[in-house]
């Protein structure tokens, strides 16, 4: 089993970098290694690439370049048998289509996939991103006032928890994160696999975190929430990505 973390400093020591560039490389590579863990294969790399889709093209390009250089270094040093190489994340231009509400009453039914169910409901009811769910702490949830606090960078959002979601918010005494693995949060890969397994159990394999979030937006639009208010609730800096749902000018 290769300890990829230990090779980051060795890799950087062979490169002539400024202090700022070295910090940038180290940050990107430590983030990459933290996500793939000890599993370097086509599947873990695909999940990592998908995680970059939320970033700006310039940030994606930098991270992909850093990781590809590191992957070649591992291959050149004989630490991996195959030279894996990431490709730039291309955003496909999809023709604008009419998006409609889906009956998702089945998400509230009893299931053995409790973690996957809660992830799905947090997206559907609150519009949270998987990355935001991963960082949720028990202390962010106030059951008495039915509110959930989302902290992202310096921004803080206070979201109301409706009566539909409340019964599913449970945790053990002493727990720090809502989804906790020995005192720490789970990896992005775990959230992806857990949500997919739950949706597969309901024959809803076509659904993804992104599509569930879209259903949240549709439900908010249909209930009359103003586009500016929804953008704030979702933590968006502009309403650009919401405009296609607000054709009627709510």
TrEMBL record:
Family annotation (InterPro entries): CB, DNA_brk_join_enz, Integrase-like_cat_sf, Integrase_catalytic, Integrase_recombinase_N, Tyrosine_recombinase_XerD-like
- Pfam hit, one: Phage_integrase
**Which residue ranges does the record assign to the Tyr recombinase domain?**
89-250
| Active site residues of this protein | 245 (o-(3'-phospho-dna)-tyrosine intermediate)
- UniProt keywords, alphabetically: Cytoplasm, DNA integration, DNA recombination, DNA-binding
| Localisation per UniProt entry | Cytoplasm
**Domain called Core-binding (CB): residue spans:** 1-75
- This protein's source sits in the domain of life called Bacteria
Q: Which family does it belong to?
A: Belongs to the 'phage' integrase family. XerD-like subfamily.
Q: What does this protein do?
A: Putative tyrosine recombinase. Not involved in the cutting and rejoining of the recombining DNA molecules on dif(SL) site.
Any idea what this protein is called?
A: Tyrosine recombinase XerD-like
Organism source for this protein?
Answer: Streptococcus caledonicus
């Amino acid at each position: 089993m290769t300890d990829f973390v230990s090779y980051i400093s060795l890799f950087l020591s062979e490169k002539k970098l400024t202090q700022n560039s070295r910090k940038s490389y180290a940050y990107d590579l430590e983030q990459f290694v933290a996500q793939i863990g000890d599993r370097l294969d086509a599947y873990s790399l695909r999940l990592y690439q998908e995680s970059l889709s939320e970033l700006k093209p310039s940030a994606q390009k930098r991270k992909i370049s850093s990781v590809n250089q590191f992957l070649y270094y591992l291959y050149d040093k004989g630490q991996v048998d195959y030279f894996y190489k990431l490709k730039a994340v291309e955003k496909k231009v999809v023709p604008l289509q009419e998006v409609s509400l889906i009956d998702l009453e089945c998400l509230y039914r009893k299931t053995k996939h409790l973690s996957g169910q809660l992830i799905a409901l947090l997206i559907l009811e609150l519009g949270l991103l998987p990355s935001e769910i991963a960082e949720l702490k028990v202390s962010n949830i106030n059951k008495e006032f039915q509110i959930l606090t989302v902290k992202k960078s310096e921004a803080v959002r206070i979201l109301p928890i409706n009566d539909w979601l409340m019964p599913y918010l449970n945790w053990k005494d002493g727990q720090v994160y809502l989804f906790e693995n020995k005192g720490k949060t789970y990896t992005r890969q775990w959230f992806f696999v857990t949500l997919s397994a739950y949706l597969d159990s309901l024959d809803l394999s076509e659904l993804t975190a992104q599509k569930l979030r879209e259903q949240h937006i549709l439900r908010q639009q249909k209930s009359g929430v103003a586009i500016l208010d929804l953008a704030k609730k979702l933590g968006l800096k502009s309403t650009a990505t919401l405009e296609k749902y607000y054709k009627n000018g709510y």
